[in-house]
Design a protein that fits this description.
With 261 residues, this protein is α/β, with parallel strands linked by helices. The protein has a single domain (9-256), classed as Protein tyrosine phosphatase superfamily (Protein-Tyrosine Phosphatase, Chain A, Alpha-Beta Complex). It is built from 13 helices and five strands. It has helices spanning 38-45, 58-63, 86-95, 99-111, 116-126, 128-139, 159-170, 175-189, 192-203, 210-217, 221-235, 238-244, 249-260, and strands spanning 9-10, 27-30, 49-54, 75-78, 148-152. The longest helix is centred in the C-terminal third of the chain and has 15 residues, at 175-189.
Length: 261
C-alpha cells in the first residue's frame, strides 16, 4: 500500500487461462497521485515503479497535480483521454469562474449523460493509440528496477480499468478475474474519495441521481463486460484491438513475456 491512495494495487496474481498467474511488480494501477501523504511519497519512492502513465486531461492534471518524490526520477508519460473524464468534469465545473458557464456545463453534461458501458465503448473507439502506448511502455520494461509501470487516471476505475483489462486480456488473463479486479475499485474508493466526488456534484447544485453516482463511483461488472464484448466483436479480442492502435507483433510478444512470463 501507498499512504494516501485508496485504489492502488499490483495487477500481478491475475489467473491466466493457460495456467499460472500474471507477474507481480510489472504493472500497477491507482487513482491520481494528488493525495499522497508525506509517507506516501516515501512509499512510492521505495517501489520498483519508474514509469507513470497518466490518462488524465491537461485540465485534470492542472487541478490536481500528482505529488511525486524528489529523491529520484520518474518518467511521466501523458496519454490524455477525454472520454472517461467524468470526475475531471466535476472538478472543472467546480473551478469555473463564470457561474453561467458552470451552469451551462452542468446542463450539457446532464443532457448527454451516458451509461458506463456506453462511455467505455466510446473511449475504446477513440483511444486505441493511447492504450497501445501503455502496452508498449509495459512491453519495454525490464527486470532491472525501477522500470515497473504505474497507470492512473483520476479515480483509477474507468480509463485505468479499461486499460488494465485490455493488457491483461491480451496476455491471456481469465476474463472473470479481470472483471472482478475492475469491480473491486468501487469498494476501494468507498468512503472519503467517493464522498469527496459526491460533494463536488451536490455543491454544483446537481441532484445526485443513481445514474450520476454510478458514473462517479461505481464499477459494475456488466459495464466492463459490455466493453470487452465490443472489443471481441470489433477486433477479435484485446490483442487485435491493441494492434489496431499501432502495437506491433514484437511488442505484443514482449508484453506477454513481461506480464505473463
Amino acid at each position: 500500500m501507498i499512504n494516501g491512495l485508496q485504489n492502488f494495487r499490483d495487477t500481478g496474481g491475475t489467473p491466466l487461462t493457460q495456467g499460472g498467474v500474471s507477474r507481480s511488480g510489472v504493472l500497477f494501477r491507482s487513482e491520481a497521485l494528488s493525495n499522497l501523504t508525506r509517507q506516501g511519497i516515501k512509499d512510492l519512492a521505495a517501489t520498483d515503479i519508474g514509469v507513470i502513465a497518466d490518462f488524465r486531461t491537461p485540465q485534470e492534471r492542472d487541478m490536481a497535480p500528482d505529488l511525486l518524490p524528489q529523491s529520484r526520477e520518474f518518467r511521466i508519460v501523458e496519454l490524455p483521454l477525454l472520454e472517461g473524464a467524468m470526475t475531471g468534469m466535476a472538478q472543472g465545473v467546480m473551478k469555473a469562474a463564470d457561474p453561467d458557464a458552470a451552469a451551462a456545463a452542468i446542463q450539457q453534461a446532464l443532457a448527454t449523460l451516458p451509461s458506463l458501458s456506453d462511455l467505455y465503448v466510446h473511449m475504446l473507439e477513440g483511444g486505441a493509440g493511447s492504450f497501445a502506448e501503455l502496452a508498449r511502455l509495459v512491453a519495454a520494461s525490464t527486470d532491472k528496477p525501477p522500470t515497473a509501470v504505474l497507470v492512473h487516471c483520476t479515480a483509477g476505475k474507468d480509463r485505468t480499468g479499461v486499460a488494465v483489462a485490455l493488457l491483461l486480456e491480451a496476455v491471456g488473463a481469465d476474463r472473470e478475474a479481470v472483471i472482478a479486479d475492475y469491480a473491486s475499485s468501487a469498494d476501494n474508493l468507498a468512503g472519503p474519495w467517493a464522498d469527496r466526488m459526491r460533494g463536488m456534484v451536490t455543491a454544483m447544485g446537481v441532484p445526485l441521481t443513481p445514474e450520476i453516482d454510478t458514473l462517479l463511483t461505481a464499477t459494475p461488472p456488466e459495464a466492463l463486460s459490455g466493453a470487452l464484448e465490443w472489443v471481441d466483436s470489433a477486433h477479435g479480442g484485446a490483442s487485435g484491438y491493441l494492434q489496431s492502435g499501432g502495437l506491433t507483433d514484437d511488442e505484443l510478444a514482449a508484453l506477454r513475456v513481461r506480464l505473463a512470463g
